[in-house]
Amino acid sequence: MMDAFGGMAIVANNLSKSYHSSQTKQIALDELNVNVPKGGVYGLLGPSGCGKTSFLRCVVGRLKADSGSLTVLGKIPGAINHGIPGPLVGYMPQELALYEKLSIEETLKYFGRLHGMSKTTMNQRIAFLICFLKLPEETRVIENLSGGQKRRVSFAIALLQEPPLVILDEPTVGVDPLLRQRIWDHLLEISQTSRTTIVITTHYIEEARQANKVGLMRNGRLLAESSPDELIRLYDMETLEDCFLYLCQYDQANNDIEDEEGLTVGKSKVDSVRRSEGTTEEQELLLTPATSTRFTQSVVESIREKASKFCSPPKPRNILAIVIKSLIMLRRNIGFLLFQFLLPAFQILLFCLCIGGDPKDLPMAVVNNETAPAFGALYLGFIDDNVLSLHDFGNDHNAAYSSVQSGFSWGVIEIGKNFTQDLILRFGNQPIDNATISGGSIHLYLDMTNYLISTSIQQKTMEAFEEFARNVTLSLHMNPAIARLPIIIENPVYGDLHPKFTNFMAPGIILSITYFMATGLTALSFVLEKKEGLLDRSLVAAISAFEIMAAHIIAQTVVLVVQIAVLLIVTHLVFSVPIKGPIILEILMTLFSGLDGMALGLLISSISTNEVNAIQLSLGSLYPSLLISGIIWPIEAIPTWLRYISYGLPITFPAEAMRCILGRGWGLSYMHVWRGFLVAIGWGWGLMALSVLIIKLRII
Asked: Cα–Cα distance between 570 and 562 in angstroms, integer?
């Protein structure tokens, strides 16, 4: 296959690529023709924005051209059994693309694992590259290196596995001139001794004099392609930079003619311009680089078809490499890691301390119109003084009422002047009028603007009256049961006679904390790596969307397990939230909800273009889920149409299943429990599959 290209490592025929926005179309490659021979250094020169990086991304399989054909080492990038992307290519992008929290050794070992290098070979290459590039000790963390040292580490990654093709995008920017020359000497040596093909871009045009062949690019096209000495000789220039300037002027003259006519000019006019510039036939051959015609279009289409059908199985070594890298980065940021471990416990701590308890020290104004100590004072003694703080206003109703209007009291408890006599008459058997019933009653004037506080006041005053009435009936030698409401609440089927709101919310809060913490863990996973070029560099090493997803899930699950352990310990051992069902089901449900959140975070990360978008999507999904999933308030209280939306959320049925496990002691034999597990597992797999698909379409 390679012989069909006459010893060419890269052959591009009429390669075109455009980037489209809402209003404009930017041409990156304009029917580009490039021929890179095997076993040499090829310098690709041109100004920023001329299409060099787009072409290199096509070569390494990270960008698909709109039209034309491209073969690298005899095959289309990404073809079946082809190592591009993969170990056959070493890639150094223009940006540094380094993991700041890894050391030099850990960085090189990460990429070595991706390329399938043996431990012995990897260690030997690392030792050589550190010595050759004069890098600091291998244990130095990347973030502590200077800019030049970081660029040398980036260069070392490209040479690590000794690939037959090395792509270097501006490798010598900011590098010491002596080291720059050493790098060029090494590139020339390996290209000659090991037949390695090196494609290098550089802003230092004269530096490219050392290349075996150069291609001069402008506006997505190749102006000329030959050896530096041949270009200088043919155009009778002193430097390669002068040749490039002349060719740019020549190209601009042609463009000016096209602009004047408003359309593509005929060959005669172009020829006249060329003659006016004194262009010879020999120079013409360089101005129109030769394209390979030995590889027929049918063969190209055949290879392209194989490439499109190829789907490589996941490699455990790639997953392991990404997991190790992620765990090392977590360990390096120990402060943030501890914060992640303790934050769920802190959140459940605040929940248990702040939610579900009785309000304390609520100021209440008291107006007792009885002149002598009697039943009114006795009743006030039964009120829970931990909840209600009573302030005596004597018999001044107006002053007490004004204290509520001024916001100093939550309400007025008023007792009539004949309360004792009227209450005794109420307990008697003779007929009584409405005035007697009113006189034997406790009157409340409440501030009802706070639903929970006003409800608590009503509950405590009624509980106090029931206890007071029981004591009064006993003192009157009557049956104390007569003071009860004619409703008898028997022992509950599930739960306690005095339920706590905390116990209702706790199952949903446990799941929601785990779910949204996991979302936050992964929401920025790809965004930052895409932004800094890290993901792109790893993808050139031929990792797949599934491998990326699996590795992130495995690494973050380690954090998730610790979070769940701390969360449940605080919930059940510190605050004694009851659990009546199998604890293994609670652990599994919490873990599945965490995985659902992790999958949602990966989905957000895959569709977001920057950190702000990812954070907004993460936070935007939090509040609606809490409101309509039945965690804060029963879903039976929301409108019917909204209830159906609630059923489709990933937390609603799992939260109900958790309540059944914790409060009722149910197991998987009950529909409410296995339905919750089914929904949690289904959401997890669905979100992960969607994330993989989006990663393949948008990133890979």
From this structure: 12
